[in-house]
Amino acid sequence: MNKNTLFIGFMLFAIFFGAGNLIFPPNLGLESGQFFWPSILAFVITGIGLPLMGVMVGALDKQGYIGSINKIHPVFSVVFLVSIYLTIGPLFAIPRTASTSFEMTVTPIIHSSSPVWLFVFSVIYFLIVLYLCLNPGKIVDRIGAILTPLLLITIIAMIIKGFVDFGGSTQNTANPEVYTSVLGGFSKGFTEGYLTMDAIAAIAFSMIVVNAIKATGIKHANDI
Q: Which of 35, 85, 123, 193 could form a disulfide with 43 if both were Cys (CB 3.0 to 4.6 A apart)?
């Protein structure tokens, strides 16, 4: 494994790890109780497996998903892809990333969820995002080499904090209103894995990943 492979792997982790990945798994673990394993298995299938398959499928066509979906019908391709980008963009995913970041970082400090503070935070947040995205050629270095290690450190710190605060008082019984059987737990995990929206985002991210790999000098489709 060379440095570029490691950084691209880090980049994949960072761009897919969004607000949903931070919200749903802990809640799933807390409420699933004795149905934890079928629930988390289903979550992994839709929250990790489908996005990974999406990236691989997107890399098979030189034009990415545009080329693949155009084979169905050009009009369908436009409508479908516009819907996808609106869903993972301004309608759902983008606002969720800012609001979740605000609730987890600023709110505990200022003890307020004021819309004014949320607006100020969102402006700063998206200016930083804009800076990171202005030069696609440096996206691997900026995200894979800088942001991902910081993200991993933060996640590890949160896990340790969770064990310290709740390690001795976790509940072993599932929430009876949601988890009633193994199949019910699997269904809930399957749904929540999909609600991370990573499977949908893979359609857009696949070309980002492919272009990032090409920027390292790898051009042949088989190597990608």
A: 193
CA pair distance 43, 24, nearest whole angstrom: 9
Domain region containing 173 = 3-214
- Taking only the tens place, the pLDDT of each residue in 128-147 is 888 877 776 676 666 666 77
CB atoms within 10 A of CB 170: 11
Tokens representing 112? 């307020």
The answer to whether residue 220 is domain-embedded is no
Given the structure tokens 């749904």, which residue do they identify? 191
Q: How far apart are CA 224 and CA 214, in angstroms?
A: 8
Q: Is 202 exposed, middle or buried (0-12, 13-18, 19+ CB in 10 A)?
A: buried
Could you give the 3-state DSSP secondary structure of residue 35?
Answer: helix
Beta carbons of 67 and 61 less than 8 angstroms apart: yes
Q: Is residue 146 part of a domain?
A: yes
The enclosing H or E element of 130 equals helix 115-133
Q: Which element (helix H / strand E) includes 80?
A: helix 74-86
6 membership: H or E segment, kind and range: helix 3-16
10-31: pLDDT as tens digits: 777 877 887 778 788 888 888 8
Number of domains in the chain: 1
* 158 within domain boundaries: yes
- pTM, entire model: 0.72
CA distance 196 to 46: 9
